[in-house]
User: What shape does this take?
Amino acid sequence: MLFTGITRTFSTKNEQQYETIGAFWAEIESKYDCSRLRGLGYNWTADTIEYVIGLTDGIIEGADCTVILPDDGWTEVRGKTADLGSIYDDVYKDGALSYEIETFAADGNCRILYSRSDEGYKKICKASEGDLDEILRLQYLAYQSEAALFGTDDIPPLKQTIKEVTDEYLSGTILKMVTEGGRIIGSVRAHAQNGTAYIGKLMVHPDHRGCGLGSALLSEIERYYCGLRYELFTSTRSKDNIRLYQKAGYEIFDQRAVDDELVFVYLEKDEG
Assistant: This one.
């Protein structure tokens, strides 16, 4: 389950979050009806909490973060917004939460979903220029499996330089997937030209593959270029990649041979 919205980090010292998160809600409610909004609290530390406000339907304008949430293991509590403090007192008596999602109705009722998942959070957001060295190191690791398909390290992703990655950062968008400990375990990048978003370097750390993170990254980069035609490519030997892209709605439209060994397959999706 993905939760996309506008993110802020608030201090929890002296319970400041209750006032500051309330002001955050008031700010967003000036633009949207309260019943359309939902808030996610997660990543509690000794001094801070991260909080995201999104929509119950669609994507909120200005969204800058997507948090990957557990699909199962949620508990629901309903009550009056005026009784929110006592509701949380009751929830917290059984221990700390991993995630809590709040929705509030205009009639004064509220709904709380909470989870005590053992798995640390993962979130997707824009990379900064300071992240590029770590992303390039991840790229060198993630593309080893691609190189193994050809029996050589002489493939473009393993020869890319930090200058080339920086140029792509400056001319487009690079997203990162970050763990609770701040480690980058996934990335994807894209740039737009003549109505098409060209997507590339979709990668997930080998230790985190097979659980939908690549699909989440692909969906997120598409959101940044909403309404455009999407194009990407991979080698004909990358059967797993092709299956992932086709499952996401991409269709093959071309193949181009680089040499006798390397053939690229090009896929597209048009939602314009």
Remarks:
- The mean pLDDT is 91.
- The CA atoms of residues 11 and 188 lie 31 Å apart.
- The helical segments are 17-29, 84-92, 132-142, 144-150, 162-171, 213-224, 239-247.
